[in-house]
Amino acid sequence: MNRIGNPEGEVTEAVVQERIGQATKDLGFIEKHDYMLPESTDALGSKTYWLTLKNGLEASPQFGSGHPVTEEAGRIFDVLDNGGRIKESTLHGFKDLANQLPVARAA
User: CA 33, CA 103: separation in Å to the nearest integer?
Assistant: First the structure.
């Protein structure tokens, strides 16, 4: 099973801004329930990406703190922040949760 997440080491400001921009853009897709995981495994394993996504979800009136999607983004960030790595299946589970939850609520 592939695991994603490596110590970010020395990261340039440009890379940080790129990951923040990607997470901000992806937040819009999550709010439309049309989220796709970033193609870059560097972004998927980025603490900056997941922290920005979690904070954006917490601030979103549609999600907010305590929402399952917000909680899962926070959990992924916490694992990476503690030096862990994320299973690829966990990332796909996050994508499915973000895209399918509204359907489950409507049912």
Answer: 9
